[in-house]
Amino acid sequence: MDRDRVLQVRVSRGVATLTLDSPANRNALSRAVRAQLRTALAAALADDAVRVVVLDHTGRVFCSGMDLAEAAGGAAEDQGVREVPELLETLFTAAKPVLAVVRGPARAGGVGVLAACDVVVAGAAATFAFSEVRLGIVPAVISAVVLPRMLPHLAHRLMLTGEVFDAATAAAAGLVDVAVPDEQVDAAVAAQVTALAAGAPAALAATKRLLRAGGLRGSFDELQELSARFFASEEGQEGIAAFREKRPARWVPAAD
Predict the structure, then answer these.
(1) Left if phi > 0, otherwise alpha if psi is -120 to 50, otherwise beta: which for 14?
(2) Which end of the chain has fewer CB atoms at under 10 Å, N or C?
(3) Residue 254's pLDDT is what?
(4) What SS3 class is residue 121?
(5) Which ranges of the chain have pLDDT less than 70?
(6) Is the separation of the CB atoms in 18 and 63 below 8 Å?
(7) Helix, strand or coil for residue 136?
(8) What is the edge-to-edge ordering of all strands in the sheet holding 178-179?
(9) Pick from 117, 122, 143: nearest CA to 55
(10) Which pLDDT score is estimated for 217?
(11) How far apart are CA 38 and CA 48, in angstroms?
């Protein structure tokens, strides 16, 4: 067993599952976790066989945020100030769909990690908190990915109070996409992964860029050109043919 491993990686049927595996420190964003997650993400995003990335966790806690033991006594430049933004940006701008599975508490930077993903599935045991202000720090970096997701008035209150809130509140705020009982988490994840993998790779990547850019910030002429280009593309023509012939498109992973 590799004692230095804090991340499990498994690739199966087009799905790369990256599992935070550092339960002793509540899956905190330690230097080791940041490094291994960054490396695994790069490999998954570069692998043409991978269609969807799933971020899961072992132990009771999804992610407790920055590793406070490492942060104690360190200067500002030692706090992962460049690594964390890079990690969040990689998740946020990834050309492939990224799904987070939250089975337990997420705090501070851990909330930022899940907010940077495209789809968040949470069980009833999941709780959330922007605990930064109670520690004398500011949720500055994570605000870049949290604020586009959340209702402004709820983000305002929850970031200022640092209070703990449940999965139902997170879903109502927009932070969580699918909130289900704990025993239904795996089934909900499987359903979302199947739906995501049914999309064509290039079309998914272009749609993600469109969504992240904010849709109508582009002109209708630009959007029409994008639409027409994909209708005429190899993927578009294959998707149309598959629909008409009532068969799966060739990019859909084969069933076991």
Answers:
(1) left
(2) N
(3) 82
(4) strand
(5) 1-3, 71-82, 215-218, 220, 256
(6) no
(7) coil
(8) 7-12, 15-20, 52-57, 98-102, 119-122, 178-179
(9) 117
(10) 60
(11) 18
- Shortest CA distance to 198 belongs to which of 139, 129, 126, 248? 248
pLDDT at res. 80: 59
> Tokens in use for 200?
């064509």
Q: What is the structure's pLDDT at 78?
A: 55
The CA-based angle 7-183-51, given to 5 degrees, is 45
Q: What is the pLDDT of residues 179-203, one digit of tens each?
A: 999 999 999 999 999 999 999 999 9
- C-alpha distances out from residue 107 to 50, 142, 164, 233, Å: 29, 11, 9, 43
Catalytic residue positions?
A: 132
CA quadruple 180, 175, 107, 179: dihedral, nearest 10: 0
pTM score, whole prediction: 0.91
**Strand ranges (E), the chain:** 7-12, 15-20, 52-57, 98-102, 106-107, 119-122, 127-129, 165-166, 178-179
DSSP, collapsed to helix, strand or coil, labels residue 32 as helix
**DSSP letter at 231?**
H
CB–CB of 44/51 below 8 Å? no
Integer Rg of the chain from CA: 19
**DSSP bridge pairs for 60:** none
Q: Hey, what long-range contacts does 138-141 have (CB within 8 A, 24 or more apart)?
A: 139/108, 139/112, 141/81, 141/84, 141/85, 141/88, 141/109, 141/112
* pLDDT tens digits, one per residue of 173-183: 999 999 999 99
Q: Note whether 64 and 105 are within 8 A (CB).
A: yes
Cβ 137 vs Cβ 106: under 8 Å: no
Q: In the prediction, which pLDDT does 225 show?
A: 86
Tokens of 53: 């990335």
